[in-house]
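Final report, Chapter 2: Outcomes

The project's central promise was a pipeline that accepts a single protein chain and returns its three-dimensional structure in a standardized token representation, suitable for archiving and comparison. That pipeline is now operational. To close this chapter, we reproduce one record exactly as it appears in the project archive, with the input sequence first and the structure output second.
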Amino acid sequence: MIAVEFRTGKVLWRAGKTSRSDQDAMVFADSHAYLRNSAGRVLLAAITSNGLVTKGEFVPPRPGTTEPTWTFPVITGGRLYLRDQGLLLCYDLRDKVSRRRPDVIFVPTPQDVVEKMLELANVKKNDVVADLGCGDGRIVITAAKKYACKAVGYDLDYECVRLSLDQVKAARVEKLVRVEHKDIFDVDLTGVTVVAVYLGPTLNEKLIPQFKKMKPGSRIVSHAFEIPGIKPDRVAELTSEEDGVAHKIYGWTTPFPASVEARRARAHVGH
């Protein structure tokens, strides 16, 4: 195996056989090579400028055959498919976060509602805006373009993450915006000053422990849905020019009132 610089044709490095077999089939995904030799052994390796770095290997079961395996591995949807004669094997490559299904489907917020949400949050250049369930990235992109602030989008759906990254690149705001594939309930919000959500009351309530860790004076804005039991500081309504529908936007400022926490504690004890 060799690595060649495409522009010049220069050979960067040569590697010996990755196995005792004469041939390896290879597929490349997420900066790694998945190599499979004719005996069926599968090797995972990172491809660097200095050569292959082995990360792991295994030998899949091959019941009833000793014939060579010539088919290439296939990766799609976070799964590795291996065909060996009449046998088809499937391995789940996704981590725990990737396996959990998103809590809501992606429904885009109209652009004029996005702008109203950020206006209601009183976003400034020194803010850090987070969108929990960023969809196509329009909230974080708008925050960066309009207010020149830093922004981060989180989403559990790989397709939404890819879509957001493409949109961030197209908008040329890569220096201000990052998008991460994460479970929003595992996200640390202590360094965030503005949070935008479009999730529903049950999920909003589930986020309260994370909201409580935000710095005093941080703002939370929610499209369409309130945080149960916590009265918003401000409410705005906008009839969108995109869909002709009246949209409500709710806003809160941290910390939440002590009376709210007392009521929640009493309700928990009663429950």
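Archive annotation: Helices lie at 96-99, 111-120, 138-147, 158-171, 201-206, 208-211, 258-270.
This record, like all others produced under the grant, will remain available to the consortium after the project formally closes.
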